[in-house]
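The record is passed on directly below:
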Amino acid sequence: MRLLSTLSLEPGYELAKPIYNAKGKVLIHSGVLLTEKMIERLNGFGITYVYIEDESTEDIVTEFPIHDSVRTQALDRITETFNKIKSSSSIKDSFIFDRTGEKMNEVVRKILSDIQSHHKAVSLLSDVFAYDDYIFTHSLNVTIYTLALGTELGLPSRKLEELGFGAILHDVGKVQVPKEVLLKPGRLNEEEFNLIKEHSEAGFNMLRSAPSVPLVAAHCAFQHHERLDGSGYPRGLCDQDIHYYAKILAIADVFDAVTSNRVYRRAMLPHEGLEILYSGAGTKFDLHMVEAFRRSVAVYPNGLSVILSDGRKGIVSEQNSNISDRPQVRILEENGQPVHSYYELDLSKALNIVITECDTTLVGKT
């Protein structure tokens, strides 16, 4: 399968991976031959990339880092929790974490177990979600990235569970942000941005009022927009005053935000998201954590078309453990011509060759 931009799709392409809505329900099933109307629908959903089937890449697979049942359970739990708070007239009286705290912890433990048994760099492009209410999928994605990074940093299980609990609820304060502001397709004005920024403190106040929620989880909600140089919000904290968990969450939160579909812009690819993090490494984000995050995620996910420094073109076919920016590439084109018989090039061994460009069109299509 190949990862393609929806802008380069043509009728007749076969969808290789299903398209989900924000609650994890299938909108378009895999195996469907795309029509012009379906392609228009995908672009209308805000979908940036999809996987399609073709003969030269039919054995290339992508895997979501957690099982479908765990993903469904997590999305259901997040959706239920956030909606109950949103529809309540009194946060204190209706706060449901005392009743669901253990269930949420159970979900976090299942996510953590799946990630630790996955043994591969995390890629969330393997399943594609349509833009709807992004808070639910964003909360799940941030939890997955956060636990992958926490595992890479060597945190013990107890701390990983605390961190995961804070991650899955880090954006709960957004239930108080007006939907017309949260989903505004254009640039926010100063007043609207100030409304958005209030979600950090709102989430903190919600979580700290629930006896079953660890205080560190409340601080995850409070501080995940703080930055090392003091340029973040809500309090403008600097490096030593920001909780360790919040520093981890900041990285996962920004990476998922820029690599996910949004109503106001198209998603970046993972290597572009990492460039954003590295541009702030040492000033806004902890450099050691950014480097650990690079080892945790698939910089160039399977199915992505790439151009190499020697001019060859191909498709990322397999990840190499702990060196996610040096994957294996299936060469489909060299010297400007399609190859008669494709072959694999392992960039962890061919150290004189680097990926110089990504291409989400049909490179080497025969």
User: Anything to note?
Assistant: Residues 97-118 form the longest helix (22 residues). DSSP finds twelve helices and eleven strands in the chain. The first strand starts at residue 2 and ends at 5. The CA atoms of residues 259 and 268 lie 5 Å apart.
